[in-house]
């Protein structure tokens, strides 16, 4: 079946001499694995559409058999999100979000609201500075938890200081307080969300979120 959809590149790796394997989070089909034949050739028709963090429009021959790759026919970049690659902090921030999606979401489980949230979050990280990117990361976590049905209660928490709770309340609807996120605040909030998602999502562990080893050369 030939289908067309928007997709965000979550990860990828080389396949053979000229091809690529990629995991995409798509608007219409959720998380899927594809093979792009000839994608590593010098004059590949895919261009930069399969680069890490890119938002692209893809055409693929969707294979409905379990554990079988779909064949990518065409891909055009909508938003490359190159700004993420300008600093290690932004790379780390975006990669941790990608890792959560990879671990938490089942294959071919469509969620258009989550797709929009992920797309807007990566765009914001690419656009803003490192401090703002940290606020965007935690705002994503709060909205992701709400969408998944286990919203974080910001009225009180025995695991967070009053300062950290105040930061999260400010971040929830705005990044105005982004400059107030110190290194200590970032570590405390990061550890809190690692524990929170580990408790609520079977596929997520504190080790997997901490490592976030998905930034590969496509």
Keywords:
218 residues, alpha+beta, 5-stranded mixed β-barrel, 6 helices, 40% helix, disordered C terminus
User: Could you give the distance between the termini?
Assistant: 26 Å
Strand order of the largest sheet: 1-2-3-5-4
Question: Which sequence of SSEs, written as H and E, runs from N to C?
Answer: EEEEEHHHHHH
For the secondary structure, the number of strands is 5
Q: Which range best describes the helical content: under 10%, 10-25%, 25-40%, 40-55%, 55-70% or over 70%?
A: 40-55%
Strand residues, percent: 15-25%
Task: Tell me which oligomeric state these chains represent.
Answer: single chain
- Which class do the helix and strand fractions yield? alpha+beta
Uncertain residue ranges: 212-218
Query: What summary fits the major beta sheet?
Result: 5 strands, mixed, barrel
Tally of separate helices? 6
Mean of residue pLDDT?
Answer: 87
User: How big is the Rg?
Assistant: 18 Å
Q: Tell me, what's the shape?
A: globular
What does this structure look like?
By secondary structure, this protein is α+β, with helices and mostly antiparallel strands. It contains six helices and five strands; from the N terminus they run βββββαααααα. The chain has a five-stranded mixed β-barrel with strand order 1-2-3-5-4. Strand 1 (2-15) and strand 2 (19-26) form a beta hairpin. The radius of gyration is 18 Å and the shape is globular. The chain starts with a strand and ends in a 7-residue tail after the last helix. Mean pLDDT is 87; it is low at 212-218.
């Amino acid at each position: 079946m030939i289908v067309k959809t928007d997709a965000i590149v979550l990860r990828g790796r080389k396949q053979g001499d000229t091809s690529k394997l990629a995991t995409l989070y798509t608007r219409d089909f959720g998380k899927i694995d594809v093979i792009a034949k000839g994608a590593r050739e010098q004059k590949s028709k895919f261009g930069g559409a399969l680069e890490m963090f890119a938002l692209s429009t893809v055409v693929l021959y969707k294979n409905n058999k379990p554990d079988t790759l779909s064949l990518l026919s065409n891909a055009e970049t909508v938003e490359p999100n190159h700004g993420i690659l300008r600093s290690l902090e932004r790379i780390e921030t975006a990669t941790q979000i990608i890792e959560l999606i990879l671990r938490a979401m089942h294959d071919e489980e469509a969620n258009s609201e989550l797709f929009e949230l992920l797309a807007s979050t990566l765009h914001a990280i690419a656009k803003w500075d490192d401090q703002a990117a940290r606020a965007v990361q935690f705002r994503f976590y709060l909205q992701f938890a709400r969408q998944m049905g286990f919203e974080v209660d910001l009225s009180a928490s025995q695991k967070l200081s009053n300062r950290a709770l105040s930061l999260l309340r400010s971040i929830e609807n705005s990044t105005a307080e982004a400059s107030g996120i110190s290194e200590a605040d970032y570590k405390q909030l990061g550890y809190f969300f690692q524990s929170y998602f580990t408790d609520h999502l079977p596929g997520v562990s504190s080790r997997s979120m901490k490592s976030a080893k998905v930034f590969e050369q496509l």
